[in-house]
Design goal:
The chain has helices at about 1-35, 40-45, 50-60, 65-80, 105-140, 145-160, 165-175, 190-225, 230-235, 240-270, 275-280, 285-295, 295-325, and strands spanning about 80-85, 85-90, 100, 105. The protein is mainly alpha-helical and about 325 residues long. It has 2 domains: about 1-95, no CATH class; about 110-330, MetI-like fold (Orthogonal Bundle), CATH 1.10.3720. A two-stranded antiparallel sheet has the order 1-2. A two-stranded antiparallel sheet has the order 3-4.
């Protein structure tokens, strides 16, 4: 078990380094190869040549590539100083970039908005995992029944409907029509009940999409598992059906579910742009959308790094859960 965890931690550390290098290449090297000056992207297209040159010097874009990569990597863990002549700007660790348009470090912007995105992602994740997996298991156990057909019709609707349509429909019915739930986001430090009331619709809307996918995947996996030889053997040994399902069938069924869950939850930490925009949630998704409109590239870079790291951490947690659910994976 210990060796398995060490291998996974080492693989995650290597992947983090690879991700940082890839993100650097995407934002600094690829534009240069395409004939676009990266300094222009960071300072804005309407900036004068002197400002562009100052940003180029601050970012070290005239230095060798290996030096640029090292400065970018070091800034994430030890901070970074941007200097051009007498103009010196310090970005404290962790330095996820610096916006020369708004004259502020990106990390405080991300930390201000990250709690909103985390609350949206975690709340919706609990709903879609519980409801989606439960519906999928029941549909598999009652294959061909009215429940099975009804649940799969609802799941197909959830997968097919665009999330912005579901969000607008939920707002028009439950907020503007029936006045059951608030449409305005309230910070949790101001009012817990106000925050909870403003988050219920975003949670349900986002969970509806994912729960539908999880229900379909769970049903298909459960049906396949229930036909395996070890399930028939467990029944032949005289085990009760709930024990067969809980101890044997569910363990194999949860493996692909956990894989999906790690990817989905990690990606949502980077921001659910459509959901946050529809409900006016000041999270990372809305920050990315605003940065795209304002051509503020450092914010997009910072959110990209956050999303990548979140996916790696979520998948690392999934690897640990694999070892608990299925001891055979410890040998790989």
């Amino acid at each position: 078990m210990f060796a398995y965890l060490i291998r996974r931690l080492f693989a995650a550390a290597v992947m983090i380094v690879v991700i940082i290098v890839v993100v650097f290449c995407i934002f600094f090297l690829v534009p240069k190869w395409a004939g676009v000056d990266p300094a222009t992207s960071f300072v804005g297209k309407q900036a004068d040549p002197a400002s562009v040159e100052a940003v180029r010097v601050k970012l070290g874009l005239n230095d060798p590539i290996y030096s640029q990569v090292w400065q970018f990597f070091k800034g994430l863990f030890a901070g970074r100083t941007y200097a051009a002549g007498g103009d010196v700007t310090h970005c404290s660790a962790p330095c996820f970039g610096y916006s020369f348009r708004s004259e502020q470090a990106i990390w405080p912007v991300l930390t201000d908005r990250l709690p909103v995105t985390l609350s949206l992602a975690l709340g919706a994740a609990v709903l879609w995992l519980v409801l989606g997996v439960s519906a999928g298991v029941l549909s598999a156990l009652k294959r061909g029944s009215l429940w099975d057909r009804s649940a799969m019709i609802v799941a197909l609707s959830g997968v097919s409907l665009p999330i912005y349509f579901t969000a607008m429909l939920a707002l028009s019915v439950f907020s503007y029509g029936l006045h059951w739930l608030d449409a305005e986001y309230v910070p949790i430090d101001q009012s817990f009940t106000g925050w909870l009331g403003g988050m219920i619709l975003p949670w349900v809307t986002l969970a509806f999409l994912y729960a539908a996918m999880y229900a379909r995947i769970t049903r298909a996996t459960m049906l396949e598992v229930m036909g395996e030889d070890y399930i028939r053997t467990a029944r032949a040994k005289g085990l009760a059906e709930p024990v067969v399902i809980r101890r044997h069938a569910m363990r194999s069924t949860m493996t692909p579910i956990l894989t999906m869950f790690g990817m989905d939850l990690g990606a949502l930490v980077g921001g659910a742009i459509l959901t946050e925009s529809a409900f006016s949630l000041p999270g990372l998704g809305q920050a990315v959308l605003t940065a795209i409109k304002n051509q503020d590239l450092p914010v997009i870079l910072g959110v990209t790094l956050i999303t990548s790291l979140a996916v790696i951490i979520a998948n690392l947690a999934v690897d640990f859960l694999y070892a608990v659910i299925d001891p055979r994976v410890r040998l790989t």
